[in-house]
């Protein structure tokens, strides 16, 4: 549309200049070809008689003819101007229509490039525009875009292979170390010092396992989801809470009461990733709490809300908690409490699902985290009754 308006504006500007030039040239030609010839009647004959005080009849007729000619010439110029304006407007409208059609046809390859770029994702990087036609600017743009897709495809393939290889190469030696340490603890002839050293090394090994697991999960969650399905968010929350119950002995030193308010909500996503995101949120809410603290978990149309008591959190540090390896007040010393990847994994998983995650500091201490996920398409009443039927 902008190209059409630009083309139409230039057309009317050029037409106006042409019309004005034609009008001036025509007026000059009429003045030269008619008025001057009528006025130039040749030299007057010499006479000794005095000029009459009243004009002669021939002079009156002459002035009438000159006035009539000038009036007719002015009428011709006015008619020429009106006709030219009408013709220019009609041709301008036709030019606008043709300009729109030509611009649409010329920009159609760009629309194809745009549609392909919007349709592409990590799982469809194998698609190409493959534009055919003359090697003009649009063709070079499409070829450049295809070349960029080739490079991106190779990068994503390399990243997937790296994650798969790292998952195996990093976990295997740590699993071997854990096995050796556990066997040494079971040795009856082992000295108390050796057992204390084995326990310390086993705790360090477990910390590294959690760190590597978190890094791999963060790398996987930052990629696009390959499978989506409708699932109940309340069921995902219950599954995550059941997993936390298995880790109850680790939280007995700091008793925390968990309050649940789970309403049925259907969302679309990967159940394993969503379960891990909920697990990390609740685990952080329990871990970074106070003695006899409280954790509130609610699930409804507004999404998932996890709120906990705890130490006061400065509002300006809330967003930094979602960055990898960032803790409250920049704490990197007490890293034994966690790897600093919990909330980073939550944000990566929520972003991969097309949702939002926000956090706010509670005035009484602790955080309030709200997770919004895209809901599943609505079902009919009959389908809802069928799902609820026993």
- Widest sheet: strand ordering: 2-4-5-7-6
Radius of gyration of CA atoms, rounded to a whole number: 43 Å
Main beta sheet strand tally, sense and closure: 5 strands, mixed
Number of helices: 8
Helical fraction: 55-70%
Number of strands: 7
Gap between N and C termini: 58 Å
Strand content: 5-15%
Which structural class fits the helix and strand makeup?
alpha+beta
On the 0 to 100 scale, the average pLDDT is 77
Overall form: elongated
Series of H and E elements: HHHHEHEEHEEHEEH
- Contiguous runs where pLDDT drops below 50 for at least 5 residues: 36-42, 246-252, 331-336, 378-390
Give a summary of the structure in a few sentences.
The protein has helices at about 1-40, 55-120, 135-185, 190-220, 235-245, 270-285, 340-350, 380-390; strands at about 230, 255-260, 265-270, 295-300, 305-310, 355-360, 365-370.
What does this molecule look like?
This protein is an alpha+beta fold and 390 residues long. Helix content is 59%, strand content 11%. It has 8 helices and 7 strands; from the N terminus they run H-H-H-H-E-H-E-E-H-E-E-H-E-E-H. The chain has helices spanning 2-39, 57-119, 137-186, 192-221, 233-246, 271-287, 342-352, 381-388; strands spanning 229-232, 256-262, 266-269, 293-300, 303-308, 356-361, 367-372. A 5-stranded mixed sheet has the order 2-4-5-7-6, covered by helices on one side. A hairpin with a 5-residue loop joins strand 6 and strand 7. Helix 3 runs antiparallel to helix 4 (192-221), helix 5 crosses helix 6 (271-287) and helix 6 (271-287) packs antiparallel against helix 7 (342-352). Residues 36-42, 246-252, 331-336 and 378-390 have low confidence and may be disordered.
């Amino acid at each position: 549309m902008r190209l059409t308006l630009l083309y139409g504006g230039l057309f009317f500007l050029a037409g106006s200049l042409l019309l004005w030039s034609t009008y001036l040239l025509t007026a000059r030609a009429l003045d030269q070809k008619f008025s001057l010839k009528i006025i130039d009647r040749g030299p007057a004959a010499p006479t000794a008689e005095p000029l009459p005080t009243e004009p002669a009849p021939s002079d009156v007729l002459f002035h009438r003819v000159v006035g009539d000619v000038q009036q007719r010439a002015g009428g011709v110029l006015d008619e020429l101007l009106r006709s030219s304006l009408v013709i220019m407007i009609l041709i301008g409208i036709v030019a606008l229509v043709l300009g729109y059609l030509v611009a649409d046809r010329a920009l159609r390859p760009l629309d194809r490039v745009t549609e392909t770029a919007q349709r592409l994702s990590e799982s469809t990087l194998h698609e190409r525009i493959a534009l055919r036609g003359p090697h003009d600017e649009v063709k070079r743009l499409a070829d450049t875009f295809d070349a960029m897709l080739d490079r991106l495809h190779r990068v994503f393939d390399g990243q997937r292979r790296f994650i798969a290889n790292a998952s195996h190469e990093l976990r295997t030696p740590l699993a071997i170390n854990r096995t050796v340490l556990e066997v040494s603890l079971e040795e009856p002839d082992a000295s108390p010092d050796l057992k204390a050293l084995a326990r310390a090394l086993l705790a360090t090994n477990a910390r590294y396992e959690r760190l590597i697991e978190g890094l791999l999960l963060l790398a996987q969650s930052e990629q696009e989801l390959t499978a989506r399905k409708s699932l109940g968010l309340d069921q995902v929350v219950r599954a995550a809470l059941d997993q936390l119950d298995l880790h109850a002995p680790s939280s007995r030193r700091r008793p925390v009461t968990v309050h649940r308010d789970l309403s049925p909500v259907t969302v679309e996503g990967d159940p394993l990733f969503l379960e891990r995101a909920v697990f990390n949120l609740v685990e952080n809410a329990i871990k970074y709490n106070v003695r006899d603290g409280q954790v509130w978990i609610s699930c409804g149309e507004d999404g998932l809300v996890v709120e906990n008591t705890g130490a006061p959190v400065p509002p300006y540090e809330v967003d930094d908690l979602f960055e990898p390896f960032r803790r409250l007040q920049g704490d990197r010393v007490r890293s034994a409490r966690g790897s600093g990847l919990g909330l980073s994994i939550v944000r990566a998983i929520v972003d991969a699902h097309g949702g939002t995650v926000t956090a706010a500091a509670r005035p009484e201490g602790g955080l309030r985290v709200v997770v919004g996920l895209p809901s599943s398409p609505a079902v009919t009443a009959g389908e809802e009754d069928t799902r609820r039927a026993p």
